[in-house]
Specification:
alpha/beta, Rossmann fold, 3 domains, 5-stranded mixed sheet, 9 helices
Length: 280
């Protein structure tokens, strides 16, 4: 009730004040005090999981995304600006569309509270303000800290959790979670996603890349290369994981820039995959 009161009061002041900037600043301070810009943890429950199977081995990723989007659409909030799929990014003549115009967003105001309030709000709730480079985040139940060597001088830090049956890790695939740009394992959404996947029967590795989290603390002079070296690092991580007794194959889940790195790694690894070899 207090949060609602503060927000409504601030909006009314904006309407009455001639100094909009001062009122907006007051709104930001009040919202910060009330906690609406604090990081939020929303743990996934078993009923939140929706399985979307691959219809056939010949189905392309693009077609799978189309089918998945159609299947999950009823679960999303109603919107007059739906998500764009790959084929939606070009017009009938094959020319790229203006994404900002499609979503009615002004790129010049994305950093402003009035111009992009919900975007800034949800970004703050998704990543928080904690930086775990110098001190590791609190422990995660079911996960342990690991260091994985990717070349002679570099080890990547991560948290590895095994899915278990009667207290013993069972054979399963392992999903590697890649952070957003310069993210680390202090982010609550990473912890919650990792735990949900582990509870669903997957082994999970939350990885901190070069220049990220505890990896940066271990190697302060080793820099992130935006995929140049990290692609090879992920191949080494995959080999390390698949050498563990209970891990069958590895897969990637990337957030923000980590998704780009995941696609780059999949492309790099693709030519080496044959019907007789494990998919990574």
């Amino acid at each position: 009730m207090s949060i609602r009161f503060v927000t409504i009061l601030s909006i009314s002041r904006i309407r009455e004040s001639t100094d909009v900037r001062r009122s907006v600043a007051a709104l930001a301070v009040l919202c910060s005090v009330s906690g609406c810009f604090s990081e939020q943890a929303i743990r996934l429950q078993s009923g939140d999981l929706v399985s979307v199977p691959v219809e056939s081995d010949s189905q392309s990723v693009r077609q799978w995304l189309v089918n998945t989007h159609q299947r999950l659409q009823p679960l999303l909030p109603a919107s007059d600006r739906p998500a764009l799929l790959t084929e939606d990014l070009v017009d009938p003549q094959g020319r790229p569309i203006d994404v900002f115009d499609t979503f009615k967003e002004d790129p010049a105001s994305l950093h402003q509270l009035v111009g992009n309030f919900h975007g800034l709000l949800h970004s703050a709730q998704g990543i928080g303000q904690v930086n775990a480079n110098h001190e590791p985040p609190p422990t995660w139940p079911g996960f342990g800290a690991v260091r994985i060597g990717v070349d002679e001088n570099v080890t990547l830090a991560g948290r590895l959790g095994f899915a278990v049956t009667d207290g013993v890790p069972h054979d399963a695939d392992c999903i590697v979670i890649l952070p957003g740009l310069f993210g680390d394992n202090s982010i609550l959404r990473t912890r919650d996603l990792a735990d949900a996947l582990r509870q669903s029967g997957f082994h999970v590795l939350a990885l901190e890349l070069r220049g990220h989290g505890q990896t940066e603390e271990d190697h302060p002079d080793v820099y992130y290369t935006f995929g140049t070296l990290e692609t090879g690092d992920l191949m080494a991580v995959s080999e390390w994981l698949e050498a563990q007794p209970s891990i069958r194959r590895t897969g990637l889940f990337g957030v923000c820039w980590g998704a780009n790195l995941g696609m780059l790694a999949a492309w790099y690894d693709g030519p080496s995959v044959t019907p007789a070899s494990p998919m990574r």
